[in-house]
Amino acid sequence: MRFFYYVHTGHRVGLDRFRRAATIIRALGDVDVTLLTSDYRIAQVARDFGVKRAVGLDVVRNIPQIAHHGDKIIFDSDEANPIMFDELTRFFSSFVHINDDENYEKHPKEALVNPYLVGDNICNSLAVDDKYFEVHQKTIKQTLFFGDDDYEEDLLKNIDMFETLDLDLQIGFYFFIGYENKMQNTFKNMYEFEEYDAVIQKSEVLVTCSPQAVLESLAGGGRPVFIQRPDYTRAFITLFERLNIPIIEGYDKENLSNVLAKVLLHNYHTLERNSLNLTKFLKSSLVL
Length: 288
Known about the structure:
about 290 residues, alpha/beta, Rossmann fold, 2 domains, six-stranded parallel β-sheet
């Protein structure tokens, strides 16, 4: 019997799910987990995130070609239709689902991790690594992390939104080669993908379209501002409203400018540190 973790990643969906998958795998410690990703590129560098073994897949329906009936899995994806999802819950002896939908109806054969729901076999939790709760000196005034993906070059198309705002730029994993060169006149400093952790921890203000980056910034005392990209899930809006995180709808420069002018006085709510409860739930659900 083997343990798997499937996560939906890619140049059109970013790495938010991958980042929390790596967080969960690290938290599971010595449990031998094989990470399955829908993108070969991130699988090749997963070891840099503390993931010992990762395999890239073409599509989610290829999971049974690697796993065996009766294996166990943590599943973080919205790709599967209801029929395929039901088949997966029956294929694996233990099935843990990471889900962000506040209106989700739990499948009877799954254990569920969800930041909105409570109930039997449900863990009301978020996956944020303990390292982000550590106190770091905020030596970077303001950083933009658009996200790890920008296949349509939306950042460049809306570059005027960020001009004159005195922002640094954290480069994304799936950015095209040389993409940042087109924006060098807008951002004072640019940070490579490998500097992500340090930039998140040291930025006093983080402007981002990445829900996971919002949580990681808030955990360490940063002041995140969330931009809701039109092509991104809206599943985190209610959660961010509860945490009193400023939300910018689309590429609204005026709104962003107004928020940044007052952000140092904004009253953020505290993010609960609950990694231990999440780890206990996962190990119990996987019968470890």
